[in-house]
Every structure is written in C-alpha cells, then in structure tokens.
Amino acid sequence: MNAVQRKLGKVTSTSNAGWRVNTFNFTTTVLMTQKTVFEQGEGTESFTFEMDGEKAVLVGWNIQSLDLITK
Fold first, then answer.
1. Residue 18, C-beta contacts closer than 8 angstroms, at least 6 positions apart
2. DSSP character for 46?
3. Are 52 and 33 in contact (CB under 8 A)?
4. pTM of the entire predicted model
5. How far is CA 68 from CA 28, 33, 50, in A?
6. Which of 15, 33, 40, 59 has the fewest CB atoms within 10 Å, measured from its CB?
7. CB within 8 A of 3, min separation 6: which ones?
8. Sheet containing 11-24: order of strands
9. Are the CB atoms for 25 and 36 separated by under 8 Å?
C-alpha cells in the first residue's frame, strides 16, 4: 500500500463499481470493486471480505492500475 500511495498519491474520489456475495462450505465472502481516482492516476480496487458472524473481515486487496505500473 505504501508503493501505491508513493506512486499515485492520495485518494481524491472513489465510486462503487460492483459487488457480489458468495457462500461456500458455510463461509460467506463479499467482493467489492471500487473505481478510484488518486492525485496522480487511477485504478480499480478489489476488496475481499469474509463474514465472521455479523462482522466483515478484510482478507484480500488488489489494485489494477496502468498508472501504477508506468510511474
């Protein structure tokens, strides 16, 4: 995450690009996708949460950004 902030700067805006819920073997996961604009670029972030009772726990994060690769 430090490399993302160093190369792209702070988040200036973000918007929901979609989400889905999946349950398998009594485990529920939620995938949330965000279109994010940074000070020096943009990207698509994916957050994976696993439900623990009523609480969502972040278990994965991914960013896809051409700006991150080229800077």
1. 32, 33
2. E
3. no
4. 0.88
5. 31, 17, 27
6. 15
7. 68
8. 11-24, 27-38, 41-52, 55-64
9. no
